[in-house]
Amino acid sequence: MTLLALSGVSFSYGRGSRVLQDIDLAVEAGSNLGIVGESGSGKTTMLKLLLGLERASSGAVSFRGERLDAANRGFMRGFRRSVQAVFQDPYSSLDPRQRVFDIIAEPLRSLKIETDIAAAVEQALRDVDLPADAARRYPHEFSGGQRQRIAIARAIVANPDLIIADEVVSALDLTTRTRIIDLLRSLSARMTFVVVSHDIALVALLCERLVVLEKGRIVEQGATRDILARPAHPYTRQLLASTPRMPERV
Amino acid sequence: MSTLLSVEDLQIRTAARPLVSGISFSIAAGERVGLIGESGSGKSLTALAVLGLLPDTMRVTGSITLDGHPVIGARDRDLVPLRGRSVAAVFQEPMTALDPLMRIGDQVAEVVRRRALRDGTKPGRAEIASRVLALLERVALPEPARIARAFPHEISGGQRQRGAIAMALACRPKLLIADEPTTALDVTTQAEILKLLETVVRDEGMGLLFISHDLPVVATVAERALVMRHGALIEEGPVGTLFGRPSHPYTEGLVAAARAFDAALEFAP
């Protein structure tokens, strides 16, 4: 089933030049999609379109086959409930004045989801391997990796179908990064992820399908396996060749 | 090879706690050494200690000898000539390392002029301008004349980092310290900058202390690497051995994590 789709989407900010051009992509339930691109590729704009935070200049963004329509509030509430996001910087994406409990409970409250909030928060904390007493504390008491777990707990608390993860491990140390990737992998059994990153290796670890974005256009998309084995576009080949590798074992 | 930098039992602490506890290492002239560590490991503090740039609130003991001169305990007046002639640095974020109100060419020119003064010469404006252009060409900046007139915000991140490297080269230092110089850059740009750093360091016979959390990046530029954790030096060795047969469990974990990323890219057709 197609969760989110962009068809023939182009986008410009105001009267500026095209930031995205002729974008066709579909996020299928159960198959993580990676979007790889460097600075200026249009990743961030794509993210805003996928989250319904910007409207396409032309073409259509649809959710479960229906066009996103900001005026249809009931539909948008369903969309928000189904599509959540985790952002890059766990230091700026959590409100420092709120306790972790309220941060995680926020989607339940703002989307008016009728459920046992305390139980849902407790479950979300368990899902991200944080102790239950984390709920009473404030974000500054946690490390970067733990904060990213809090952000993930907030994203999953309402049981969304899709999580859009924007450079979620870029700000983290290598060992922390590996643990967060393991967490996202285990959550992939329950929900679908769109992973937006400059790091093709990260995307390869998490996603079955891959989209390569260069200067606002999709230059290649398909199964991650196939693209890595036989990159067709010169830019994809350049990205792969530029990614530093470990030396051969001696 | 002669020893360019020798660090012995370096300890850095604040009133509250130790930050770097008793590390020792050395770098030979022309040697390229990687310093690996995660955040809070003390790697950048170690670099600042070598430059004599630690804040006064930190207590430093042990000894650092750079190009035959003691750094710890030296007066700032004695350190100034060392910075530039013996050591220069390139940092992570070129946008903050460069003066936003000064054209790239003028920033490089200032270094050229100061370095010439130290050598006892006073080149004219035309001579300085031509040296600046040569340096911008050396770091493979396209249209060096245009970039010399540009302000930092008018050029890309990779170009700014090339500008910062040009300034370091203008010092003609014996040791170049590069602290996460490519972390803020795109991978394709990173690949170019790493190649550039390696080439210039090799050509000029400079020593390199390359600080990074990224193992494959370190492997690209360094011959030997040191691993720091919680302020201590836990392992060191030639890059091939260190990454091939790490002996400390922490290094093993880092190597395994880095290899997992590599493996993800190796789908056989």
TrEMBL record, chain A:
PANTHER family: D,D-DIPEPTIDE TRANSPORT ATP-BINDING PROTEIN DDPF-RELATED, TRANSPORT ATP-BINDING PROTEIN
Full protein name: ABC transporter ATP-binding protein
Domain (ABC transporter) ranges: 4-240
Location, primary (coarse class): membrane
Keywords: ATP-binding, Nucleotide-binding, Transport
Gene3D superfamilies according to UniProt: P-loop containing nucleotide triphosphate hydrolases (3.40.50.300)
Family: Belongs to the ABC transporter superfamily.
Source organism (scientific name): Shinella lacus
Bilayer topology: Peripheral membrane protein
CDD domains, sorted: ABC_NikE_OppD_transporters (cd03257)
Keyword Transport: yes
UniProt keyword Membrane present: no
Domain of life: Bacteria
GO molecular function: ATP binding
Subcellular location(s) of the protein: Cell inner membrane
UniProtKB/TrEMBL annotation, chain B:
InterPro entries linked: AAA+_ATPase (IPR003593), ABC_Ni/Peptide_Import (IPR050388), ABC_transporter-like_ATP-bd (IPR003439), P-loop_NTPase (IPR027417)
A Pfam match: ABC_tran
Localisation: Cell inner membrane
SMART domains in UniProt: AAA (SM00382)
Topology class, membrane: Peripheral membrane protein
Entry keyword set: ATP-binding, Cell membrane, Membrane, Nucleotide-binding, Transport
Membrane-spanning residues: none
Domain ABC transporter: 5-255
GO MF terms held by the record: ATP binding
Family: Belongs to the ABC transporter superfamily.
PANTHER family according to UniProt: DIPEPTIDE TRANSPORT ATP-BINDING PROTEIN DPPD, OLIGOPEPTIDE TRANSPORT ATP-BINDING PROTEIN APPD
Protein name listed in UniProt: ABC transporter ATP-binding protein
